[in-house]
Amino acid sequence: MNQLIEQAIDLAIQNADQAELPFGALVVRDGAIIAEGINTALRDHDPIAHGEVAAVRNACRKLGVLHLTGLVVVSSCEPCAICHAVCAGVGVTRILYAAPKEMVPDLGYPAPDPGPLPGRMQVALRALAPDQLEHVPSERAAEPFTRYLARKAEA
Description:
There is one protein chain. Helices cover about 45% and strands about 20% of the residues. It is α/β, with parallel strands linked by helices. β1 (about 25-30) and β2 (about 30-40) form a beta hairpin. α1 runs parallel beside α6 and α3 (about 50-65) runs parallel beside α4 (about 80-90). The model has no long low-confidence stretch (mean pLDDT about 95).
């Protein structure tokens, strides 16, 4: 799984190099990548165009299904409540991630203050499925954020 985590991080870095938010994800079955997804929220003005959501959409299209029962999502970063809910809703069994949410710096894009609800939702989802999320440490976990902020400073 470490190789898959590194591939998700590579997707996030490539996305950061394109001045997009530094998040990427894979949908995997039996160690084989079914689909990839990157965050295109800034480009598309779509607040739910997250990497995990895109990966799930792409996998469903590729497989011609509406459910991904038993599959795994591998993400460059711990999923937010939106991404976790989408994964749960389509039957993803496990979500492996590299960067814990505490590692995510202020990325400097305007976002409304959603209040405490998203954080409470994330805590609730974790509590409902404690075995679904798994942190897979990587020395490169922070690199997508560093690249994004460096690219943003250059602009």
